[in-house]
Amino acid sequence: MGSFHLSQRQNPRFYRSKGSAVAVKREVLEVPKIPRATLKEAQAALLEYLHWTRSIPFMDAENMSKNSPHFLRNLLEKVNIVKDVRSSMARFLRYHPINEFEPFFESLGLKPWEYTPLLPRNLMFLSDDSLFFENYRVLCQFGIERNKIGRIYKKAIQVFQLESGALPLKLQAYQELGLSHSFMVKIIVCSPCVLIGDVDMKFIKVLEILRSMGFDHAWIQEHLADQDSYNWGLILRVLNIFSEMFCSNELVRLISQHPGLLFEGSGYATFSLIGFLLKFGHPIDQISSMFLQFPKIQVQQFVSNLIKCFVFFHEIEMEVDEIAKLVCSYTVLLGSCRLKKTNSLLSNLNVGKKRLCKYIQENPQELSKWVIGLRIVPLPDSGEDIESKRLKMKFLLDLGYGENPNMMNKAFKVFRGRGGELQERFDSIVNAGLDKADVSEMVTVSPQILNQSKTVIQSKIDILVNELGYPLSSLISFPSFLSYTTQRVRLRMAMYNWLKDHKKAEPDLALSTIVACSDKIFLNQYVNHHPSGPRVWQDLKAELSMDK
Hints:
Elements: H1 36-53, H2 58-66, H3 69-78, H4 85-95, H5 101-107, H6 112-115, H7 130-142, H8 146-155, H9 166-176, H10 181-190, H11 201-212, H12 217-222, H13 232-245, H14 248-257, H15 260-263, H16 268-279, H17 284-292, H18 299-315, H19 320-329, H20 331-336, H21 342-349, H22 353-362, H23 383-398, H24 405-414, H25 419-431, H26 436-445, H27 454-467, H28 474-477, H29 486-501, H30 511-516, H31 519-525, H32 533-547
């Protein structure tokens, strides 16, 4: 794959070796400037070599020498300058033939990290692939700029593998259909796949439909981007669907205002949007109405915003039917809002998930105020919030936090949840059979155990007592047991029991010793003590993951 663009290599060889592999970072690196005089001499030396020694046509050799800065820079780094750059480089090239495809591809507009994977195998001279060079010459003669031919090669390498004489006939066939020369140049650059196989009838059909609606080739040319590729079959499907959804006047107005519905990603984003809305039960007539109100925004950005809103609703635990109502009733609003992240909104709005869901359902237009770039104003306290704070304060006072104001402030931040919920979670532990004073001490030592629902706490107590066989009193000495996931506890205990059965673990290890240590410590101190331990550990982990 050549070696000039990797200046880090030691003792590089300036030819392609079979099976060589080059890892090129896909980063945009600025080429350090070469002194003007040095650059001119180096370009002249490379031009002489390519044209006079390698017999490459002068125009192509000149283009290669003047438009391959990465290649030239790295070549200069390998040349030992004795008297002057030109003669030193000429001497170097005399004994170190180069991979000509590298400066050639770079002169066609490709960066090293783009063309490296495309370099022909087992070839280093352009003359070794006469078919490739012939098709390149046809494109040049047709009027395509050399620095854009690289994009064509990257998008559709098959164009350069066409049999001798085939490419001119394909170009002629399109021109005979009435397509202008300038229009075809644009199409070939951004959609070279039309030159593969027979005349692309889907492409022709798209042109016919758009022409019948009043959109000429100049309009189409204006809305095509050189750096993009186009799937004309997909664009045709979008046009067919739109033809069923809108009357002719509506469709013309829609496409003239939002050409991206057709051309962005070849209409893939439009398909994604329609499919997304249909899954939420959005009727076709409402989807049509939404498109007619479509905002001045890229289609892909609209879809991205809509999906992020859906994810946000899911993360604040909004009911599925309520999400569907919002998506169907406020599609344009959601697609226009680039929301901030969920955690940021919850923090800045100073609100819980439950209240936020209700607030959004009652005031969906407020979403437009929570977008990136705007300052978030906290929601005012509701009557429920005031009551919740009162109950939370009472709960913390009952635990003994009232004696120290600083401790009270810290406790307010540590204990998450509404006042009534905290008391309910606390009571669920007491009702399991523990003394209230013991539970108060447990919560003081490990306050995080109350930051989970009552149901989760009860399920973990059930696992401890009925599944693992430990007495409920074990929680008094190890209250943080309730903080660990059930999967972690089951995995550790299953592994410990296996090791105990194989005499590789003490039979009376404390529950905290088994569960609390990190995976690394548990593996080193227990699992690895048996030759089969690591395998059993992985098997148990896989089994529990499947059960989950």
